UniProtKB/TrEMBL annotation:
One of the record's GO molecular function terms: metal ion binding
Biological process annotations from GO: cytochrome complex assembly
Protein's job: Possible subunit of a heme lyase.
PANTHER family: CYTOCHROME C-TYPE BIOGENESIS PROTEIN CCMH (PTHR47870:SF1)
Signal peptide: 1-17
Family: Belongs to the CcmH/CycL/Ccl2/NrfF family.
GO CC field: plasma membrane
Keyword DNA-binding: no
InterPro entries xrefs: C-type_cytochrome_biogenesis, CcmH/CycL/Ccl2/NrfF_N, CcmH/CycL/NrfF/Ccl2_sf
TM region positions: 101-122
Name of the protein in its database record: Cytochrome c-type biogenesis protein
């Protein structure tokens, strides 16, 4: 029973996809590479970081990132190099500048627009006149009695 629990715990633990041949000999550079790769999206797996993904493209991106760090790039320069090649989609947490402000603001703007439209609709419905009950004419009353009696 203890072995089963141990096996299940090992299977449930997070597994990183970094292979031994990718690991840098300098532990400081390796730690920087790991931190940066957690913020970069695997273009094959979509919502997985390249640190977690087993896809070959993710491996290529991890190697490219490590090459840039070994070449002396700062963290920002290494990430900017990858973003310049693959676009901002490669970032798991997109930047909130430039045209992205439009995307960041679209949700709240649409919510306010829908709320305002709903408030005007409810207000106009509450002010609308209720249909008035009118008496039936003698001819209509006779037709109704005929229908009900048959």
């Amino acid at each position: 029973m203890k072995r089963l629990v141990l096996i299940l715990m090992l299977l449930a633990s997070p597994v990183t996809a970094v292979e031994p041949d990718e690991i840098l000999s300098d532990p400081v550079l390796e730690q920087r590479a790991r931190e940066l790769s957690k913020g970069l999206r695997c273009l094959v797996c979509r919502n997985e970081s390249i640190d977690e993904s087993n896809a070959s493209l993710a491996k290529d991106l991890r190697i490219l990132l490590r090459e840039r760090l070994v070449a002396g790039d700062s963290d920002a320069q290494a990430v900017d190099f990858i973003v310049a090649r693959f676009g901002e989609y490669v970032l798991l947490n997109p930047r909130s500048g430039g045209m992205n402000w439009l995307l960041w603001g679209a949700g709240p703007l649409m919510l306010m627009l829908a709320g305002t439209t709903g408030a005007f609709y409810v207000r106009s419905r509450s002010r609308a006149k209720a249909p008035q009950d009118e008496e039936l004419s003698a001819d209509e009353a006779q037709k109704l009695r005929d229908i009900l009696n048959n």
